[in-house]
Amino acid sequence: MATDTVILHWYSLSPFSQKVAWILNYKKVEYKTVTIAPVEPRPNRRPLDGGYRKTPILQIGNHVYCDSKCILDELERRYPEPSLYPAAPGGSSEQTEALAKSLRYWLDNDLFLAIPSQFDVSMMPEAFLKDRAAFMGRDFPGKEVAPLLKANLYTQLKLASDLVGSKTWILDTPTLSAADLHLAMDTFFAINVLTPPYVIDNFPVLMDHFQRVSDAVNTDRTEEMPSLSEEEALQVAKAASGPGPSQDQPFLPELKLGQRVSVTPLDTGRVPATGVLVSLTSDEVIIQKVTDAAGSVYIHFPTAGFIVTPAQASL
């Protein structure tokens, strides 16, 4: 297989996985998929992610991109057309990018994390509940509390609906931007948790916007992509020879290149990925992990939203 094989490690009910698949489809990237278990343990992923437990990850040869922010940036760099940051009338692509990234912090965090409060926990397997409670750092709300939290979710969905308003795309761009994908992901999640009738009845603007995004990104294309097993993906990494980055000095003087470090999310899923630090800039941190299963793998994370510490240090 070619060393630049693009592989999406995902499961279809993961909203962030869907968003990455939509980007791949929108940019008409040829890729393969690996379906992973929705819950830990995932032993065949550890040689590729160093311990990072969120989904999805995107593998390109022996480079692995973790967190949808990092994945989006890499796909935009490698496949610039069509851009996820089209210029609005009278504006620039740089302004669209700044606005989309600013909105992402609300849409990917506060709004997204308000939706699981409405899970019907009685319908969920115990293993899933335990896994997600560990991931979130708290238990799901009980049936007495969940209805009270619905007001918070309703208010945020209404704000999102008002943000779209009568516009085709959130930032009034000629084509969709990354901001539309971030919001569509939340709508996808809300539809699955709250049921389609609830979203249709209360937020028709969001449903219409979601349909426009779905049409633009050809959501059905993912089903046409070839699949690989986890073991085959490991072999792709092992056969690849993509070089590592070259850097003289890390962004943080407290750390040194070649040092063993931990990279840990600051929000949820605070399980560190460990490896040797090979690059640290204001935008991205890259660690190297070498295993018999996958060979030498370079694991990429965004600098924002993560903390890099010496491997023996704890948060």
From TrEMBL:
Pfam families in UniProt: GST_N_3
The cross-references to Gene3D superfamilies, in alphabetical order and at most eight, read: 1.20.1050.10, 3.40.30.110
Signal peptide, first to last residue:
none
GST N-terminal domain spans which residues? 4-83
User: What protein name applies here?
Assistant: GST N-terminal domain-containing protein
